Amino acid sequence: MEQYDLLIIGGGAAAFAAATKASDLGKKALMINEGLPLGGTCVNVGCMPSKRLLTVGDDFYYPQHPRFEALKEGHSPRFDFAAAMREKNEMVAQARQTNYINVLQHLDGVSLVEAKARFVAPNQVEAGGKVYEADKIIIATGSSTKPLPVPGMDKVRWLNNVTAMELQE
After folding, report:
1. What is the pLDDT of residue 125?
2. Are strands 110-114 and 29-33 parallel, antiparallel or unpaired?
3. In the beta sheet, which residues pair with residue 21?
4. What is the pLDDT of residue 68?
5. Fewest C-beta in 10 Å: which of 66, 79, 156, 162?
6. What distance separates the 2 farthest-apart alpha carbons in the chain?
7. Are 80 and 86 in contact (CB under 8 A)?
């Protein structure tokens, strides 16, 4: 069984804050992440990709709806949904690499296991077939979506932040 000063379950912003502090304090830490890739909601399916797509929407909308009389005819730009999603994916991948993967590689004393974590004892976590032990464990798994109890919701194809970011058309 591997021993650590700190086990961090999760791979988003809060988990990285804990990993960075552990490294600064010279502690041996293990981050265990499964589900969303490193970076969590904000980088992968939240803040960054949604703002990117909103900006694409602005750039598409406003040329067709000018504020000035001299431009009243406006113009109709072509919209390529697949390109917008591809560019969003490229931006997400670069942000994940730069802000998380590269940072993690330079944090002294911090390791990563990509696996689902589960407690097997008060100070022990199993992940990827191995058991890890630490005096301190932080659960930084973020949040998940839950559909609202709206009548008929089970009869329609609804989107959440994760599925919306995966659309291809």
Report:
1. 98
2. parallel
3. none
4. 87
5. 156
6. 73
7. no
Contacts of 70 (CB under 8 A, 6+ apart): none
How long a stretch of residues is the chain?
169
Is pLDDT above 90 for 75? no
What pLDDT does 73 receive?
81
Closest CA to 33 of 12, 4, 6: 12
Strands 130-139 and 124-127: antiparallel
In order, the DSSP letters of the chain are -EEEEEEEE--SHHHHHHHHHHHHTT--EEEEE-SSPTTHHHHHTSHHHHHHHHHHHHHHHGGGS-SSGGGTT-------HHHHHHHHHHHHHHHHIIIIIHHHHTSTTEEEEES-EEEEETTEEEETTEEEEEEEEEE-----------TTGGGS----HHHHHT---
Per residue in 44-64, pLDDT tens? 999 999 999 999 999 999 888
Q: What angle do CA 110, 44, 8 make, to 5 degrees?
A: 25
Instruction: Report which residue type is found at 32.
Output: I
Residues with Cβ within 8 Å of residue 37, at least 6 apart in sequence: 11, 44, 96
Q: How far apart are CA 130 and CA 34, in angstroms?
A: 15
